[in-house]
Amino acid sequence: MLEDVNLTEVSADHFAAEGWLVIDNFADPAISFALHELITARAHAGVLRKAGIGRQDEYKVEESRRGDWIEWVDPEMPEGSVSSLVEHIEKVRAFLNRTLFLGLVDFEMHFTMYPVGTHYERHSDRHRSGSTRRVSFVLYLNPDWKPGDGGELVIYPPGREQVSVEPLFGRLALFLSELEHEVLKTHIRRISTTGWMRERNTAL
Ligand code: OGA
Ligand code: MN
Question: What does pTM read for this prediction?
Fold first, then answer.
């Protein structure tokens, strides 16, 4: 089932031991290119919105802390690249459930664009109790990213050395949402899709 997604038992072991995992060539390059085009076009068309920090009443835009622009993805969007990505992510979700019993029931994701010079300060995606975000994932979509372009993801696993992930085209980074992480300042316009696999809301 996973023949078109680069996942093995080794990946599951790595994720279980470290809390993060990088999968290169996650999707067919044609899909990643199409997503890059789609997000760039939507950014130009003014569809993306400045992202904020906090939830509900506390939600506010603070560019000095978080500089990205986003659009929440409707999984029913007609574009084939979006449905392919949704299918791929579903396979990863099923894989994590099967191998690690994570109990991930669904996911949400947004298109993301960091303009030149922006970053996202160190944070956790599982803010406060009640968050159902369990696994964060980012698919990097810049075809020409090279060292020096910035925008690396840095993960801070407790009690271990920090991990720097280069945002290479077609690479999927997965990590436990509770882990602290940051996006270093980017020197190019940085395009990605970012999402969260969620567990059932047990507070209800
Ligand atoms: C986020 C985030 C990491 C990245 O959007 O919450 O931490 O590499 N993104 O884009
Ligand atoms: Mn985050």
Answer: 0.94
